[in-house]
Design brief:
Elements (H helix, E strand, L loop, with lengths): L2 H15 L24 E5 L5 H11 L3 E6 L12 E4 L16 E4 L5 H10 L5 E5 L35 H16 L3 E6 L2 E2 L10 H7 L3 E5 L5 E6 H13 L4 E5 L1 E7 H12 L4 E5 L1 H7 L1 E2 L19 H5 L7 H14 L15 E2 L11 H18 L1
Parallel strand pairs: 1-2, 1-4, 2-3, 4-5, 5-6, 6-10, 7-9, 8-12
Antiparallel strand pairs: 9-11, 13-14
Helix pairs in contact: 2-6, 3-4, 5-7, 5-10, 7-10
């Protein structure tokens, strides 16, 4: 039986056998928000103008809620001119929030525990506090089926505030604790994995629909059966709002789709939505490691991140998480990419395509020519080794 079949059976079994209470949900409902329009809420979004925020705000407005934004007033200031906008800084300038109360607070801009605790304590009279964390909060992602009860990472010095690749996850875990300390069972913690979709400037998922749309010989990492997990930012935003509407509390892995997905199916979907003539050449994970080549989203099924695409999402599904068809995510992401100007996409390529060990980080300026050259050389080496 394949890993994908194991995961599909696991999800179906747990979803059928576990009720909301046994999954650790608290609140009045674990449904997806049916049964008529929700009661209007006042919602404060800390951030709200980056990638996740606008999708969340738009969904909340569509549900009849009143939304207030708090941020530094620097990013996408043209968005939501009709909303109340409070200007301040997570680091010591929360004056605009003093004396205010909201039915719910959504915090998707918290990375430093001190900042999160300060805002949580100031807003302690608000109804609920939902913090967007990360699966990086776990101590590792080695085993399959990681649940929300898996141990989180810890810092040797919990006073560290510098966010790096090493400290990001443990800092998120400390942020979670700060929210839970203040709000107790009124706290919601969502731990997403890769957040994707239109507007994703990390370009990690974006590489695949863009590259496949170009057609030709495409280097595909691992095997078609390798599992893949991500969450469309629009699905994340909608789910967040519905949990607040239903007063559902707890900790949740935020990944999808709800039906198991593998690398082969994902690339086939990319080919279908773009109508390209792409031909996929599957390259062994060990060979990729020998060549020092890495691909976005995908990861090998060995090592400290072997289970990074196999987390248990049964609790999220019980709490009303739903995912749109993978084809919609791929099509919409490709269409969004095609609307960008050359200025918006330096080098004309997603920044997180195939990379070789020693290349600059994804914020660097690799061009499509560079990435295609890596791919050509990799395919030639693989064919010679076969």
């Amino acid at each position: 039986m394949t890993d994908l079949q194991n995961r599909r059976d696991f999800l179906k079994t747990t979803a059928a056998a576990a009720g909301a209470l046994s999954l650790g949900l608290t609140g009045t409902s674990a449904c997806a928000g049916g049964g008529g329009p929700p009661a209007p809420m006042t919602i404060l979004v800390l951030g709200g103008t980056g990638f996740i925020g606008p999708h969340t705000v738009e969904y909340a407005l569509s549900r009849g809620h009143t939304v207030t934004l708090f941020n530094r007033g620097r990013t996408n200031t043209h968005l939501f001119p009709e909303l109340e906008k409070l200007v301040g800084d997570r680091d010591g300038d929360l004056a605009a929030l003093e004396g205010r109360r909201w039915d719910a607070v959504i915090d998707n801009s918290g990375y430093v525990p001190r900042h999160v605790r300060d805002s949580a304590e100031l807003l302690a009279d608000s109804g609920r506090y939902l913090f967007v964390s990360s699966i990086s909060a776990y101590k590792d992602l080695t085993p399959d089926g990681i649940t929300e009860d898996y141990e989180v990472g810890r810092l040797e010095d919990p006073t560290v505030e510098q966010v790096t690749g090493r400290t990001y996850g443990p800092l998120k875990a400390l942020c979670e604790e700060a929210v839970q300390d203040v709000f107790g069972d009124r706290a919601n913690i969502v731990r997403p994995g890769y957040i994707v979709g239109p507007g994703d400037t990390t370009d990690r998922l974006t590489y695949w629909p863009v590259r496949v749309s170009m057609g030709g010989d495409v280097a595909a990492p691992g095997t078609p059966e390798d599992p893949i997990q991500f969450i469309d930012a629009r699905d994340l935003g909608g789910w967040i709002v519905r949990m607040l509407e239903n007063e559902i509390g707890g900790v949740f892995n935020g990944l999808g789709p709800t039906e198991p997905l593998n690398m082969g199916t994902m690339l086939e979907v990319c080919r279908e939505v773009s109508g390209s003539d792409a031909v996929f050449h599957w390259i062994d994970a060990e060979f990729l490691a020998e060549q020092g080549v890495f691909f976005p989203i995908w990861g090998p099924r060995t090592g400290p991140s072997a289970g990074a695409n196999m987390l248990d999402i049964s609790r999220a599904i019980a709490a009303g998480y739903t995912s749109r068809p993978v084809a919609d995510t791929m099509r919409d992401t490709l269409e969004w990419w095609n609307t960008l100007t050359e200025e918006d996409r330096p080098g004309g390529t997603p920044r997180a395509g195939p990379r070789k060990r020693g290349m600059p980080p994804p914020s660097g300026p690799p061009t499509m020519d560079t990435m295609l050259q890596i791919e050509v050389e990799l395919l030639e080496a693989w064919q010679s080794a076969e």
